[in-house]
Amino acid sequence: MEFFQDVHRTTIFLLILQSWSLAFSSVYNRLPYFTNYFFDNFLLIYEDTSVGASITQLLARDPDEDSLVFGVSGIEGNRYFAVESQTGIVWLKLPLDRETKSEFIVEFSVSDNQGVVKGTVNIQVGDVNDNAPTFHNQPYSVRIPEDTPVGTPIYIINATDPDQGVGGTILFSFQPASQFFAIDAVRGVVTVIRPLDYETTQAYQLQVNATDQDKNKPLSTLANLAVIVTDVQDMDPVFINLPYSTNIYENSAPGTIVRMITAIDQDRGKPRGIGYTIVSGNKNSIFALDYISGALTLNGPLDRENPLYSSGFVLTVKGTELNEDRSPSNATVNTTFNILVIDLNDNAPEFNRSEYTVSITELAQVGFALPLFIQVQDKDEGTNSMFDVYLVGANSNHFIISPTAVQGKADIRVRVAEPLDYERLSHYEFSLFANETFSDHVGLASVKIDLINENDNRPIFSQSLYNISLFENATVGMSVLRVIATDNDIGTFGKITFYFSDELDRFAIDKDTGNITLTGRLDYELIQRYTLTVIARDGGGEETTGRVRINVLDVNDNTPTFQKDSYVGSIRENEPAMIQVVRLRAVDDDSPPNNQITYSIAGASLFRSSFDIGISDGFGVISVTHSLDYEEIPGGIIYLTIMAKDAGNPPLNSTVPVTIEVFDENDNQPTFSQASYIITVLENIVAGAAVLFINATDLDRSREFGQESIIYSLEGPPQFRLNTRSGELTTTSLLDRETKSEYILIVRAVDGGVGYNQKTGIATVNITLLDINDNNPVWKDEPYLVNVVEMSPAGTDVISVLAFDPDLGLNGTVVYSISPANKFYSIATTTGKIRTTGVVLDRENPNPTDAELMRKIVVSATDRGNPPLRATSSATVVVNLLDLNDNDPMFQNLPTVAEVLEGIPVGSPVFQVAALDPDENLNGFVSYHMQVGMPRLDFVINTTTGLIVSTAELDRERTAEYYLRVVATDSGQFPRSSTATLTVRVLDVNDETPTFSPSVYNISLLESIPRDSSVLSLICTDADIGLNAELSYFITGGNQDGKFSVGFRNGVLKTVVNLDRETQAAYNLTMEAIDNGPAGSRRTGTARVFITVLDVNDNRPIFLQNSYEATVPENVSISASIVQVRATDADEGVFGRVWYRIISGDNNNNFRIDASTGLIVRGVQRLDRETRSSHVLEVEAYNSDEGTMNSVVRVIVYVEDVNDETPVFTQQQYNRLDLRETAGIGTSVTVVRATDKDTGDGGSVVYRIVSGSDRKFDIDQSTGLITTVDYLDYETKISYLMNISATDQAPPYNRAYCTVYVTLLNELDEALQFSNASYEAVIRENIPTGTEVLRVQARSIDNLGRLSYTFDPNSSPQALELFKIDSITVSV
Asked: What whole-number distance in Å separates Cα of residue 631 and Cα of residue 63?
């Protein structure tokens, strides 16, 4: 805004001056001038102005109104600012930073066309909050004791911000806020605001936030302040690995470690040792507690039967922190724990008697308790007194016992488990065992039970329906089958006879054996099935009917017959598949299914898989499934054998031969053995010689189209001829390779086809003529002269020799060789190039043989023909050797090793080098120097004498060996030199101390680490060598109990014995390494090894009880609590955490256990005492699914009976038919049976007749036997239907019902009575004879049938003579 106001004022001012300037412009040039305000004041630019931004516009006025040009001058001005020359707009070129440079003095210019005016501007850089606060003197750390009072200042944080104003004002805070410390927002003073506790927190990492106070964009910086809290003795000790409750066997020997008691000082900074004492509960001082180690041991013999020990011990142990002089301090802690004495199993279960005997009726109901008093007891306790009771012996499963799992003492009840049957088994004898679960202790008693017989069985057929099949040709008189019926009654009631219900003409049955025989012939076509009814009757008249079904089977006795003796078919080769070749048919006179015929190919001379036979319209149709190839069929004939088989059992079959004739087609062309024949022939072959036999084959097998019909023809030069039948190719004239070296011929083979049916094969013959070697190699350009510089390196080219052979191939190939051999030169066998071999060419060589060989080379040339031809003469190469300075100086005593002690004085001689050069004069004068670039300038050599001396003090540990490259150089025009190495070996002096790396080791070991296990390999080095560096290792501190050892030479730290974290959880070992330097100068290095012993799961959970028992009703609800088991584990952390699970005894999911609390509740399946009266669970306490760290306890859950079962009758209706009406009072009618699976009164059943007895019958309420209680009378009532109830004897008194149907058998037990006591009739005299006078009538209540009437014999003879009575019509 200020900028535009300045522009406005400037514009007004220019308008005022314009008129004045026009008056003077014509006289002289007037210079322009700036009009911006900031030339007299300053220009403010903020440091966050972006590069390229316009910061202002230069304004100027020229009185002459000339065009103006603006600019900026000076190094600083041009560096930071740019000016648009026409408009005067100033741009920023570089970013600004007020904290680096807060102002600029910039010179701007404006010019017209004649002069320049400059103006200086003070540019002030305005502050922007662009700097975050900066912390000083980091890192921040302070150590304070844990009892530092609240409000104490502990540290001052210092930070600054280079920004100005509120942007440079800093406020401090913790981020996040601390509960224990506060910081002064302005001064940065940190103070304590809450009491500290080293045992809770040993260090605090605080994050300090320094924030400036800029309103728009505050900036902040974070720094860390570490507050380390040091320990102060203010905490009582605490026991670890609680609880200490444990068990001990009563046979444990004195001295046995019972438990390791461990307490620690909670002051972790410098913890004090602990002393242990027993406060109370140590009856008879049976335990001893080590004051220092905390080992609780047995101090004398234990006896669980001792009343003092049977309930175990409750020990109270005190741990006291010890002062440095081992005196007790006031810091103590107590703990109380239980020790149970575990019993040993030394008693077997015993029964109160060795034998039990009883007699019961066979009608005893299931659940009936036998009147026996059986008691069993094991005098041990806990699991040692647990045993299972069970029956062993034949048929012992007919009875059950309860309880089956016992602990201590129990009464055993024997009940009926299955219905008894005297006829099946009348006497039971078995053993009753009481067997301990975890030992071989067994108690034994015998049980004998006799049954009382009842008549209660009817005949029963072994099958309700007998089903048998007979072939129609079965023999008359054969036994068909035997029906079997059984009656479990004994004596005459068990005797059974058999009858047919109807008389049969084809079958008969033996009444005693039930054997049915065939008495007439069977005919399948007339009757296919007979159904017979058989009656079985026992000796008491009880009958049962059974049925016999006899199926008549057809017999297959006719063989299929083909309509022809043989069949013939034909087909051309290559016909498509599924072409019908032959139709054939066979017939069978049997009836279905025996007359159903199937066809198959029983055999084929060839190509069985190419034929198939099917059925169409009753015919067997032979088809070709794959096209046939005549060439694969000898003679073109295939013979098939066709089988027709019926469906009888066993099936009958017949076969017929079928001949298939296959006709050939010309379907194969002649084929040459090769598509192209390539051969070679010597050029000197004679005319008429055979060159090649050409062979073509035709796969057609017929004479017409096959191999015999082939004719050959030839196309090619006249030098060759081809036999049209044999295919022999021969020459017709002499051949000459030099005239023509290769011939290409075309041959054809045609078969016997005609016209388009004829087939042709074509092949080519390539004939190459071979050369004959008849020319010798010839030398060119000899003789050969050449100059060679002596000492030329191997492979130096000397000269090339050349020989020519006009022959071709190997015959014209020349091979060069040096002959005689020359060790100085080699020749390329193919090119003739001669090179040096590398054997030194020494012009001064005094050996005359070598001198001649170096100067003369003899070369021979041979071709590779057979036989080879050699050049007529050898070529000689004469060599002229040119001399060089070719001898290097030779060291006389290098290379070698010079030994010198480290630490010798500077300037001491080390070694003198000597070298000789066989050359003469300057070429043989030798000077010495050491090669430039040696690692250290610790030595210097005399250039003339070769003496080497030291220039620095030698230190073997810094440099053990020096490799000095010494150069000897001659003085020839082209100097030659030799280089050799002098090894200066610095001998060791014991001046270095062994050094461990690292000097402090921190390791952790599992307490389960085996003894003699490698724990750590100490790394210690001694910069010396030899004996001075040979180290011996020792443990000099922290190993008072000898738990560790160190390898004397290898420094491997090992365990000597097993570790026990519960005894000692950490070790601080001092290790020393001593070198083997000379006596009096040996040096020693020291290291510390801190070992932490880590806990492993080596203590199994221990149950607080030896066993658990609980009793629950069988109707207990789901998830209801039953019993809780508890176990403890001496380990710590996750290894001390105890989990629970049921591992056996709960196959039906009746129970569920809380894995963490051990609470056993009822599971998803309900309990049923009738199924199982007790459950023996094995519960495992564990802390890992793997390993053996677990304990098992037995939990016995006794299920108490609840009356939840309803009595069940064995039948819903019992029938007693034909009960004699004259049966006396007390006659047994029938027995009803009902069983109730409950026990006690809930399983005891009482029977009652509810209705229908008319007081004629009564029932025994305990046995269910129904008897008569009054006389029966058929004439009064012929049947009774009674409702019977069975009620158990416990609430809610469950009841079941059945019916008993009784019918009476009528007997003659009532007198006849006439309808009138007397009859009178009045008749007229003289009535005709036969006239009816009257009718009399008599009746009987029995109503057994018609009555027969007669006159009483005591009637008067006269009356008997005059009258007669009809015995039937009772007419007189």
From this structure: 127
Enumerate residues 6+ apart whose C-beta is below 8 A from 244.
259, 261, 317, 335, 337, 1130
Tokens of 527: 């009757």
**pLDDT class for 834, splitting at 50, 70, 90?**
very high
Q: How far apart are CA 103 and CA 125, in angstroms?
A: 6
Rounded Cα distance between 81 and 69, Å, is: 16
- Name the token pair of 50: 């972006």
- How far is residue 1120's CA from residue 1161's CA, in Å, rounded to a whole number? 5
Residues 628 and 607 sit within 8 Å (Cβ to Cβ): yes
Task: Measure the CA–CA gap between 746 and 715, rounded to whole angstroms.
Answer: 5
Which residue's structure tokens are 């003070």?
122
- Looking at per-residue confidence, does 1356 or 1258 come out higher? 1258
pLDDT recorded at residue 192: 94
Q: Which segment of 50-54, 316-320, 627-631, 757-761 scores lowest on mean pLDDT?
A: 627-631
Residue 1101, both tokens: 């959970």
For residue 1346, name the pLDDT band (cuts at 50, 70, 90).
low
Characterize 212-238 residue by residue with b for buried, 16 or more Cβ atoms within 10 angstroms of its Cβ, and e for exposed: bebeeeebebebebebebebbeebbbe
Structure tokens at 964: 């000095």
Query: DSSP string covering 417-458, please?
Result: -S---TTT-SEEEEEEEEEESSSS-EEEEEEEEEEEP-----
CA torsion 165-166-168-174 (nearest 10°) is: 160
CA nearest to 802, candidates 834, 835, 825, 836: 834
Beta strands in 593-652 (DSSP E): 598-604, 611-616, 619-624, 637-645
Query: Each residue of 979-1035: pLDDT tens digit?
Result: 999 999 988 888 889 999 999 999 999 888 888 899 899 999 988 888 888 888 888
Pairing of strands 103-111, 69-73: antiparallel
- State how far the Cα of 335 lies from the Cα of 243, in Å rounded to an integer: 9
pLDDT in tens, 258-315: 888 999 887 777 788 899 999 999 988 899 999 888 999 999 888 877 778 878 899 9
Contact 591, 606 (CB under 8 A): no
Q: Which among 1056, 1060, 1068, 1061 has a CA at the least distance from the CA of 1015?
A: 1056
Q: How far is 1098 from 164, CA to CA, in rounded Å?
A: 69
Q: What's the pLDDT score for residue 1311?
A: 60
The per-type count for the chain, helices as H runs and strands as E runs, is 6, 110
> CB-side exposure of 61: number of CA atoms within 13 Å?
15
Residue written as tokens 């005067």? 88
CB atoms within 10 A of CB 1144: 12
Return the residue matching tokens 């018609």.
1346
pLDDT category at 28 given cuts 50, 70, 90 is low
Residue 1033's Cβ-count burial label (10 Å; 0-12, 13-18, 19+) is: buried
Per residue in 897-946, pLDDT (tens digit) is: 998 888 888 888 989 999 988 777 787 788 998 886 554 578 899 988 89
SS3 1064: coil
Ramachandran sector of residue 1296 (left: φ over 0; alpha: ψ -120 to 50; beta: rest):
beta
Selection from 900, 911, 890 nearest residue 980 by Cα? 890
Q: What share of the chain is helix, strand, coil (3-state, %, to 5)?
A: 10, 45, 50
Strands 696-697 and 328-342, by their bridges, are unpaired
- Assess contact for 1300 and 1216: CB atoms under 8 A: yes
- pLDDT, tens digit, for every residue of 56-71? 999 999 888 888 899 9
1235's enclosing H/E stretch is strand 1234-1235
Closest CA to 345 of 1109, 1052, 1181, 1106: 1106
What per-residue confidence (pLDDT) applies to 27?
44
